[in-house]
Amino acid sequence: MPLVVGNDVISVVCDRLSKIAHFVITTKEISVQKLVRLFRNNVWKLYGLPESVISDKRPQFVAELTKKLNKMLEIKIKLLIFFHLQIDR
At 40, is the secondary structure helix, strand, or coil? Predict the structure, then answer.
């Protein structure tokens, strides 16, 4: 696959168990929404949701990535607060 001008980063997604790696060409200025789309199109469709995420980005980036991925996959997050043990359905 030829490189497109402007692509200057390779995003690497590794499976720690099988040691399979996926290399996705992207740019430095990629938004979280576009990165989630790349993950969905290149990794999620083959393996499903990750069990854990290790990233060299700041924690806020990973939290935003997880939130956008859940939204894109239509996964509803229902947080449980310790003092309020009922969860609204």
Answer: helix
Q: Which domain holds residue 26?
A: 9-72
With a CB cutoff of 8 Å and minimum separation 6, the contacts of 16 are none
- Phi, psi for 61 (deg, rounded to 5): -65, -45
Give the end-to-end CA distance of the chain in Å, rounded to a whole number.
47
Q: Which of 30-39, 46-55, 64-73 is predicted with the least confidence, judged by mean pLDDT?
A: 46-55
* pLDDT (tens digit per residue) in 40-59: 998 888 888 888 888 877 88
Number of structural domains the chain divides into: 1
Question: Is 78 within a domain?
Answer: no
Residue 89 located in a structural domain? no
